[in-house]
Every structure is written in C-alpha cells, then in structure tokens.
Amino acid sequence: MRANKYHVIYKEWAEKIKTGELKAGDTIPSENDLAQIYGTSRETIRKALNLLAQNGFIQKIRGKGSVILDVQKMSFPISGLVSFKEISKGFQAEATTTVHDIGLIKPDAFLMQQLQASKKDEIWKVIRSRKIGDERIILDKDYFLKKHVPMLTKQICESSIYDYLEHNLQLSISFAKKEIVVEECTEEDYKHLDLEGFTHIVVVKNYVYLENTSLFQYTESRHRLDKFRFVDFARRGV
C-alpha cells in the first residue's frame, strides 16, 4: 500500500516536532521552498501543512509562515488514533509492555454488542500492562474480530499491533469513536497495575473502524488517575 506523498511529508515533519528536533516557535520553510526540497507541487505541500495544522503541530500566521506549536502538552491525546508505541516516544522515562493474556475467544453478550459481532465470530483477546519508569500504570484490554485480524502473536503484541496491522496485513485503519469514564478498580486492575491506594480508574473506550467503515476493534485503556492528563486539540474551522 503506497502512501500518498503529502502524508509522507506530514509524518516526516510531525516526527521532527515530536522528537524536539524542531522547537515551539520555530518556523518551517515556505510552500515554495518545500516544493523544491521534495520535488513536488505546492498543492501536495499545502495538503501536508494542512494536516500538520489540523493535528495541532503548526499554526499558519500571516507574515510569519507556519509556526510550530508546543506539543509537549499533548503527551497523551484523546482525539488522535495512535498506538502506545508511537506515544511513548515522547516519554522521558522508559516504557515497556507486558502481555498477560492473548488468545481466541467466543464473544459474550457484552462483546457482541461492543463489536457488533455474532455468536459465530471469533475474537482475539489481548491483555497488556504498560510500565512507565518503575510503575505499571496502564492496562489495555484489546479485542479484535478475527475475520479482520487472522493472526496475532505475543511478540506482535509486545511490540506494536498497529504497526503489524498496517504494514503486514495492509489494513487501512481510519477512525475511532471514544468514550471516557471513571470506574471503580477491578480485581484485574489490582492484579496488573501499581494503583498506590487509588480505588478508581480512568477508562478510555475505543471503537476503531477501518477505511471501509467496518468496526474491527474494541479497546478499554485503563489509566491510573494521577498519572495521565488527557489533552485534546481543537481548531475552529473558518
């Protein structure tokens, strides 16, 4: 699956900003300069810049050009659709993943509803804890319809499931619906997380869709209350 050139350019500049190679307040080259650098049209460059603006990386200011925004405040965005591995690149402490459970299951009534599945469907169940520094503070519970994801392994789940889905299975992951709630901690939370006395947990529920609008994944990402600040970036259309 060949990526559009404007998306390649977008990812290259987004990575420079996320890694700190470029700082807040810096400007990036003009459309004309970028078009010459990449040997492409201004329209392609404009698409890449618009994508950077839509995702909160830059602000176009008349007379100054494209100015880089402070993305350090967006360490754990709630509106983006990114993997933990991609997000963890911006963490100061080391981030590791432990897979506690992986296997095929038949859906119960709850999963049938969440994934719009039938009794005949098989579902991959993946339970992983995320350790940042010395503390286990996130528990991810992922469920994938097998008809879209034929195979998963522990090695894939320890690395990046999304990288495998997009590059090996060539799936086009498009959008997600999200719900954020606070719930009482479960026995599973106490077992796999270092809760430090907290009795409640923030749960981000994701319903993830492919480009053809097929729902293929339901996830509960369970976060210790004191460790993550969820940040969104909104831009008013003009």
Low-confidence stretches: none
Round the Cα radius of gyration to an integer and report it.
20 Å
Coarse shape:
globular
Class computed from helices, strands and strand pairing: alpha+beta
What is the overall number of helices?
Answer: 8
**C-alpha end-to-end distance:** 33 Å
Task: Give the overall pLDDT as a whole number.
Answer: 86
The proportion of residues forming helix, as a percent range, comes to 25-40%
- What are the secondary-structure elements, in order, as H or E? HEHHEEHEHEEHHEHEE
The order of strands across the largest sheet is: 4-5-6-9-8-7
Largest sheet: 6 strands, antiparallel
Percent of residues in beta strands?
Answer: 25-35%
The count of β-strands is 9
Explain briefly what this protein structure is.
The protein is of the alpha+beta class. Helix content is 28%, strand content 32%.
Kindly describe this structure.
With 238 residues, the protein is of the alpha+beta class. 28% of the residues lie in helices and 32% in strands. It has helices at 5-18, 31-38, 42-54, 84-88, 109-115, 154-159, 161-167, 187-192; strands spanning 27-28, 58-61, 65-68, 95-105, 123-132, 135-145, 173-184, 200-210, 215-224. A six-stranded antiparallel beta sheet has the order 4-5-6-9-8-7. It has a three-stranded antiparallel beta sheet with strand order 1-3-2. Strand 2 and strand 3 form a beta hairpin. The longest helix is centred in the first third of the chain and has 14 residues, at 5-18. The protein starts with a helix and ends in a 14-residue tail after the last strand.
